Amino acid sequence: MQWPTATADAPCAVRLLRPAFAGALLLLATQAAAQFSGSVSAVSDYRYRGVSLSDGSPVAQLRLDYDGKSGWYAGGVASGANLREEGRSHAQLQAYAGYSAQRSSGLAWEVGGTGAIFPCAAAYNYAEIFAGFAAADLSGRLYFSPDYLSLRAKTLYVELNGSRALAERLHLLGHIGLLHAFDRPKRSEAYATSQADISIGASADLADWKIRLTWSAARKNDEDNRLYEGRSTHAWVLSASYAF
Questions:
Q1: What three-state secondary structure class fits 17?
Q2: 3-state secondary structure at position 57
Q3: What is the number of alpha carbons within 13 Å of residue 123 lying toward its C-beta?
């Protein structure tokens, strides 16, 4: 998969993330309802579907969630990013919304949509719809995008996530995902291929903090060389999140 070219001034991401973080914190501070929650995190490497979106560098992230009593939910994530090896900072804002319900058997299902916006690099913007399930310690989602990362290629991404308690505050985590592109775009400089990613790790709950260590890897083939040029297809990722 070839990434589209994007450029941005270095201060752009900083200027956009500052009001996003400040506004989000103010919103939560003024809400008394318990259905609002959020977290702030520091991540050693922002890896998305096996690919580093921070070029192996640490970034800060903010997450906000709203869970309605009727089953509707919404939320968003603001994160730093470094999309290309240009020494420039970017920002990613991701919003999502959906509806979930749980059957008497304990099986839950959901449908919704998500959109990723790169304010300083609009060429990467894309949207997806998804459907998913959750049962005990296992969950999965199927995503469809009509134009993934503005590559003019329809894609499906399927993921399966698992969690198993090793102790009261310690969990083993696992993830596997597969991205499939249906067609190639008309632009010769951009193309999409199928690729897989996997991660395994553990998380520990310490009061309001969650510490997570995972090993993430993506399948690399000849067609993906330009996507991974200068970037490792595998890495250890350490994150610390504070919930509020």
A1: helix
A2: coil
A3: 13
pLDDT, tens only, 160-215: 999 999 999 999 999 999 999 886 655 544 445 678 999 999 999 998 999 999 99
> In angstroms, rounded to a whole number, what is the distance separating the alpha carbons of residues 126 and 146?
8
pTM reported for the whole predicted model: 0.82
φ/ψ region of 11 (left if φ > 0, alpha if ψ in -120 to 50, else beta) reads alpha
Q: Which residues touch 23 (CB under 8 Å, ≥6 apart)?
A: none
Residue 82 in tokens: 């470094």
Angstrom distance (rounded) from CA 116 to CA 137: 27
Read off φ and ψ for residue 49, nearest 5 degrees: 55, 40
The alpha carbon of 22 is separated from its chain's Cα centroid by a whole number of angstroms, namely 21
pLDDT tens sequence across 61-82: 999 999 998 999 999 999 998 8
| Residue 13 CB partners (closer than 8 Å, separation 6+) | 80, 81, 89, 90, 91, 119, 120
Question: For residue 158, what are the β-bridge partners?
Answer: 142, 178
- How far separated are the first and last CA of the chain, in Å rounded? 37
- Give the pLDDT of residue 107: 95
> Taking Cα atoms as reference points, which of 69, 123, 66, 122 lies closest to residue 95?
66
d(CA 184, CA 2): 11
Scan for tokens 């070219």, then name that residue: 5
Contacts of 31 (CB under 8 A, 6+ apart): none
**Which of 120, 180, 118, 181 shows the shortest CA–CA distance to 152?**
181
C-alpha 119/C-alpha 109 separation (Å) is: 32
* pLDDT at res. 184: 61
At residue 206, φ and ψ (nearest 5 deg) are -125, 95
